[in-house]
Specification:
Helix 10 packs antiparallel against helix 13, helix 10 runs parallel beside helix 16 and helix 19 crosses helix 21. The chain is of the alpha/beta class. It folds into three domains: 93 residues, Phosphorylase Kinase, domain 1; 147 residues, Rossmann fold; 219 residues, Dimethylsulfoxide Reductase, domain 2. The longest helix is centred in the N-terminal third of the chain and has 20 residues. The strands form six sheets. It has a five-stranded parallel beta sheet. It has 21 helices and 17 strands. The two termini are 33 Å apart. Bound molecules: iron/sulfur cluster. Iron/sulfur cluster binds next to helix 3 and helix 8.
């Protein structure tokens, strides 16, 4: 056997490590002869660039093709996001195509059992049930529920079919449960939709505060970039502020645990300290910040008929300071369980004029019963200090899924949305009708249900057909037992499965 050159040796070592890590995590996974042949050097691969579709980080991957078939993967060294790295999910993206448990056929429930049928038969059944249901119960008796894993073309077709052809705005996605808080946070704090920071901030920040964000496991490539900075600059600090201990906690300089939902009190207490210690950046606040107040109590808010409109009312700096006076670190400590000394220490990191601070968050703040408000409160910290929109200073809401909000924005996969517009706006309806090639009258000008309301309607029987794609709400919805009951009842009544799982082998 000939001795490999240095480049081949490094390549094989990297692939072997990824393969070993993957098999340790997924013992049932067959890594396949493809990897074996690649490691043995017999494969003649053509490498193609692609984005990783697993999460919202946006890493660039190189996929190795042999005779047109994907057989290997590695991080793209030219990608500015991951610079040649990938996490175990990215490394497994090729193996996932060939998993033994991957569904490759349509399944239809008959007599309580799922049976395999030809895809055409399953699609004909879906079409027949759609027609039958709308004819009997009206357009709004059918719905589609997708996810942030929907590509833009997937969402385009869903939106066109349901809004443009079937005439119902019953189109929602699981992005409603997470990134809606983030978007409403952007809109209410800044009047513009999109995150404030960029990944390059990681290279400049001195302190990272992770608000309920297990980045070591959920955004591992970005987390490794933070660890790299700490290695290069030992004064860099990573603070894990969370409700549970995770792998991020073990790697952080401090793990600060607090009671669920108490992050709002902690954020207000940090602002209280910033004001009390005179750390406010007066120039920045005077030039760029205005003060508004909204509701502070919306009750439980989770009943079927709960609605509220948070209409902001202009207020003053003095009134804001009076509001903050109720959130001393001691009071926030009572609410959160996080000691007042820790809250003061955290505030001092934010307040130190010599340190650049990036706050990262994702589902911990966004999938929250007060998600928009807690987004607003973290922005308040950065706005008071003027630590925003400069290298290393960022309040940065991360995304979990690759198209969590992108698809909604681009093609309108929320009940109120249209491609780059809203159903209530005549011009937006005309624009959507034009690109879909449907009469404008087909598009209903009234939104129907947000995601949770849609499942409540399913439970009540108002919605009688729901097509669920690329998400598993019967595992992930809050208050799940109620909807599981609805789904079981519905599935029994119609003898049709709710989800159509398909995968195309390459
Ligand atoms: S961090 Fe996300 S985008 Fe990057 S490789 Fe992992 S799963 Fe893919």
């Amino acid at each position: 056997m000939s001795c490999p050159d240095r480049r081949t040796f490094l390549k094989r070592t990297a692939m072997a490590s990824a393969a070993a890590a993957a098999s340790a995590l997924f013992p049932d996974l067959v890594l396949g002869e493809e990897i074996g042949r690649y490691l043995g050097g017999s494969a003649d691969l053509v490498w193609k660039k692609t984005p990783c579709r697993f999460c919202g980080v946006g890493c660039g991957l190189l996929v190795g093709l042999e005779n047109g078939r994907a057989v290997a993967v590695r991080g793209d060294p030219d990608s500015l996001v991951n610079r040649g790295l990938a996490c175990v999910k990215g490394y497994l993206s090729v193996q996932a195509l060939y998993g033994r448990d991957r569904l490759t056929r349509a399944m239809v429930r008959r007599d309580g059992r799922l049976v395999a049928v030809p895809i055409q038969e399953a699609l004909d059944l879906v079409a027949a049930k759609l027609r039958e249901t709308t004819e009997q119960y009206g357009n709004d008796s059918v719905a589609i529920y997708g996810s942030g894993q929907w590509t833009i073309p997937d969402g385009y077709v869903a939106s066109k079919l349901f809004k443009g052809a079937l005439g119902t705005n019953n189109v929602e996605a699981n992005a409603r449960l997470c990134m809606s808080s983030a978007v409403t946070g952007f809109m209410t704090s800044f009047g513009l939709d999109e995150p404030m920071g960029c990944y390059e901030d990681i290279d400049h920040a001195d302190v990272f505060v992770l608000w309920g964000n297990n980045m070591a496991e959920m955004h591992p490539v970005l987390f490794s970039r933070m660890l790299e900075q700490r290695q290069k600059r030992p004064d860099v600090k990573i603070i894990d502020l969370a409700t549970r201990t995770t792998r991020t906690s073990y790697a952080a300089d401090r793990s600060l645990l607090f009671a669920p939902q108490a992050d709002l009190a902690i954020a207000n207490a940090i602002c209280h300290e910033i004001v009390a210690r005179n750390w406010v950046n007066g120039d920045f606040v005077q030039k760029h910040v205005s003060f508004f107040k909204g509701k502070t109590d919306i009750g439980y808010g989770l009943s079927d008929d709960a609605t509220f409109v948070d209409e902001p009312e202009e207020t003053t700096w003095e009134e804001y300071v009076r509001f903050l006076s109720a959130y001393t670190p001691e009071r926030a400590a009572e609410i959160s369980g996080l000691p007042a000394a820790d809250i003061r220490w955290l505030a001092s990191l934010y307040g130190d004029p010599a340190r650049k601070v990036t706050s990262f968050w994702c589902m911990g703040l966004n999938q929250h019963t007060r998600g928009t408000w807690v987004n607003n409160l973290v922005y308040n910290i950065h706005l008071l200090l003027g630590k925003i929109s400069s290298p290393g200073n960022s309040p940065f809401s991360l995304t979990g899924q690759p198209s969590a909000c992108g698809t909604v924005r681009e093609v309108g996969t929320a009940t109120h949305a249209l491609p780059h517009g809203t159903v209530t706006n005549q011009e937006d309806r005309e624009f959507a009708a034009g690109i879909w090639g449907v009469p404008v009258e087909s598009i209903d000008p009234k939104p129907t249900h947000h995601a949770i309301s849609m499942f409540r309607a399913l439970d009540r029987g108002d919605i009688r057909f729901m097509w669920i794609q690329v998400t598993n709400p019967m595992v992930t919805l809050p208050h799940l037992n109620r909807y599981r009951g609805a789904e079981r009842g519905w599935a029994r009544a119609t003898e049709t499965c709710l989800a159509c799982h398909l995968a195309k082998p390459l």
